[in-house]
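User: Structure with coenzyme A, tokens only please.
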Amino acid sequence: MTMAIRKEQDSDKESIWKVNAEAFETEAEANLVNALRDSGTPFISLLAEADEEIVGHILFTPVELTGDNSGLTLMGLAPMAVRPGFQRKGIGSQLVRAGVENCSIQGYDAIVVLGHPEYYPKFGFVPSVKYGIKSEYDVPDEVFMVLELKENVLKGKSGIIRFHAAFGDL
Ligand SMILES: CC(C)(COP(=O)(O)OP(=O)(O)OC[C@H]1O[C@@H](n2cnc3c(N)ncnc32)[C@H](O)[C@@H]1OP(=O)(O)O)[C@@H](O)C(=O)NCCC(=O)NCCS
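Assistant:
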């Protein structure tokens, strides 16, 4: 199997929808990806191709830290999906690593994620409460995590992270 990670192109939209619809229980996440893209918000969208077939996808869109006016630029990782037959082969990890690198190259300060607490720490994510940063959703502390892309950029920061309004439809 040859594996490649690359940025999405216009012609990938339908395949990306299918990957998300297959990986999640409902089509909500697949539709969310389209809604975010259509909203005009900036995004980083990467996909994993195995033998030229799209098998995985990861999306990053900007999130806001309430009350912060210091110009912090933060990305939210969501959603991420790998087609069921291709899971647990390291494809998700490759997508996360490539996504983190892309966010970093584009100059973002940090990335937040709401997800499995035993998965994301492998990539350096730590519970956001370490910084007094919380999710807008009522979730256990350990599932809302953050990764600094610049050293100490979150020092002294606190507040609530808000995702794009389209996430409200999930
Ligand atoms: C989460 C997901 C993207 C991971 O992709 P992947 O290619 O399987 O990830 P990797 O192979 O890099 O890593 C596998 C690890 O992920 C973790 N993992 C995967 N699915 C998990 C789940 N449902 N619960 C807890 N941990 C999970 C495990 O730690 C696993 O390691 P193991 O095989 O040693 O147990 C994929 O499982 C998926 O699409 N799930 C359905 C959609 C989803 O829940 N997305 C994340 C929320 S936005």
